[in-house]
Amino acid sequence: MNTQSNEINQTQVHSYDWAEGFKKSLPVAMGYLPAGIAFGVLAQVAGIPVWATIMLSAVLYAGAAQYACLPMLSAGLPIGSIATNIAAINLRHVFYGMPLLQYLPKNKIAKTYCLFALTDETFSVMTSLPNESRQALILPVSLFNQGWWVLASAIGVLIGSALSDLVPHLDFALVCLFAILAYEQFQSIKRYFPIVIAVIALVIASFFTSNWLLLVAITICMLMILVRGFWVQHSVQGGSNE
């Protein structure tokens, strides 16, 4: 029984397309390198040790949350408070895993890592790929993407604040990268509904809060998606009854 399980796991490992995964990670690297370097520079300016900066990119690995936790770490806030804020920022990642569950590796360690490493950019790359190639690429793309981020963070913290003076606003590269990947994803699937509900949710959320804008907007998006799902299901059932 164990021999059979080992053979299945080996087949799963050998089925990964590492060369193609590296190619798919290159567009992400173009954004991760400047944004990660900017994070490293800001961490160095904030007085975060080199080892702690690299550990944040390796263990936390969440661009926006990493930027947000720097002032909290500098201010010496309790770990519980920092963890709560990071959890709120990263809550959206819970929903990223749902469309990709069937493509996750069978190996438990690899599956856990892919769920951990499912960032905005990795999700965008994976959902723009054909269904038949996702399982072979999800682990390589996840590993290469995090590798670029950790490498960039290490470079940034070693370079120090000199680069920030020469090239200001490097962190905006992460926003640009996500916008480009979102556009490429739209070109692939040609669906307007996600864009429409995202804009509506953002406008509605902006009337209620500014500190929790992302969390409230995501909640509104979820409600609108559920309402649309029930409406479509009801319409299909109504048509079948007729």
Structural description of this entry:
The protein is an all-alpha fold and 242 residues long. The protein contains 13 helices and no strands. The longest helix has 29 residues, at 131-159. The chain starts with a helix and ends with a helix.
State the separation between the terminal residues, measured CA to CA.
52 Å
Label the structural class: mainly alpha
Helix content: over 70%
Question: What coarse outline follows from CA principal-axis ratios?
Answer: globular
Describe the main β-sheet briefly: none
Mean pLDDT: 80
Low-confidence stretches: 1-13
The strand count comes to 0
Q: Tally the helices.
A: 13
Beta-strand content estimate:
under 5%
Order of helices and strands: HHHHHHHHHHHHH
Question: Whole-number radius of gyration?
Answer: 20 Å
Task: Tell me briefly what this model is.
The protein is 80% helix and 0% strand.
What distinguishing features does this structure have?
242 residues, mainly alpha, 13 helices, disordered N terminus
Topology at a glance:
Layout: H1 2-14, H2 18-45, H3 50-60, H4 63-74, H5 79-89, H6 93-96, H7 108-116, H8 120-127, H9 131-159, H10 162-166, H11 172-189, H12 193-208, H13 213-241
Helix pairs in contact: 2-4, 2-9, 2-11, 3-9, 4-5, 7-9, 8-9, 8-11, 12-13
